[in-house]
Automatic annotation (TrEMBL):
Species, as recorded: Pseudooctadecabacter jejudonensis
Pathway given in the UniProt record: Amino-acid biosynthesis; L-phenylalanine biosynthesis; phenylpyruvate from prephenate: step 1/1
Pfam families for this protein: PDT (PF00800)
Catalysed transformations (reactions): prephenate + H(+) = 3-phenylpyruvate + CO2 + H2O
Protein name (database record): prephenate dehydratase
Length: 282
């Protein structure tokens, strides 16, 4: 029985591309939302989940950070996908005809310069591949979609303009989620430990909590905050550090963090992807 990997979007989405590139031995399972993709893994309908978390141009995918801590899943890998944005149109349409271009709210700012220069109005769609599907199913020759070449092939659309992203290093990072953690691996490019935490309500708690990583030589590569429970005073942090929880310096840093927090939850331990270091030079 073949394994499957759930992703948010329709067939041809960039998340679909990430699944094909990172887990070619898994059958991609499209889901309408991130929550649905996570639920598919949690219920056992899929073995893994491919979840987009941040883009080098747009920034983080905000709603995902509120979903992951309560998902019951574990991060077991990361994947980086070079996002080439293409303007797709109905067969026979020309670039000069296009008046609107639909895409996910995350992708629209990534090619804003091109759209402004061409006088094309951006239109928000639930998903880039869904935008391609809608153009294919419609009869409007002035409507375009912002999507991948995979989407063009799947829905029979013409590529009216290739690689229209504003930045030539435009990359999206994905986390691969599983029902079970895997702490045994040691990656060729190092390991990453991810966790969420809330600091105690005392002066300089965050500053003091971070001190343990500095004094123990642990490199923190990510620290992001977001509110929880609708309270301005309840701030949760998502962090990633280089190293494995079994490493002595990571252990010492986490022990010091524990002293200044009232909640810590390990989210995952996974090998650092080669693209983590290469993405900046693509």
């Amino acid at each position: 029985m073949s394994k499957s990997i759930a992703f948010q979007g329709e067939p041809g989405a960039y998340s679909h591309q990430a699944c094909v590139e990172a887990r070619p031995d898994h059958t991609p399972l499209p889901c309408p939302t991130f929550a649905a993709a996570i639920e598919a893994v949690r219920k056992g309908d899929a073995d893994l989940g491919m979840i987009a978390v941040e883009n080098s141009t747009y920034g983080r995918v905000g709603d995902v950070h509120t979903l992951l801590p309560n998902s019951g899943l574990h991060i077991v890998d990361e994947a980086f996908v070079r996002v080439h944005i293409n303007l797709l149109g109905k067969p026979g349409a020309s670039l000069d005809q296009i008046r609107t271009a639909a895409g996910h709210v995350v992708i629209l700012p990534q090619c804003g310069k091109f759209l402004r220069e061409k006088g094309i109005a951006p239109v928000v769609s639930p998903d880039n591949a869904r935008a391609a599907m809608d153009v294919a199913n419609g009869d409007d020759m002035t409507a375009g979609a912002l999507a991948s070449e995979m989407a063009a092939d799947i829905y029979g659309l013409d590529l009216l303009a290739r690689n229209i992203e504003d930045h030539d290093r435009n990359t999206t990072r994905f986390l691969i989620m599983s029902r079970e953690p895997d702490f045994k691996r040691r990656g060729n490019h190092g390991m990453v430990t991810s966790f969420v935490f809330r600091v105690r309500n005392i002066p300089a708690a965050l500053y003091k909590a971070m001190g343990g990583f500095a004094t123990n030589g642990v490199n923190m590569t990510k620290l992001e905050s977001y509110m929880v429970g609708g309270q301005f005073t309840a701030t949760q942090f998502y962090a990633e550090v280089e190293g494995h929880p079994d490493d002595r310096n990571v252990q010492l840093a986490m022990e010091e963090l524990d002293y200044f927090t009232d909640h810590i939850k390990l989210m995952g331990v996974f090998p650092a992807a080669p693209r983590r270091h290469e993405a900046a030079s693509d």
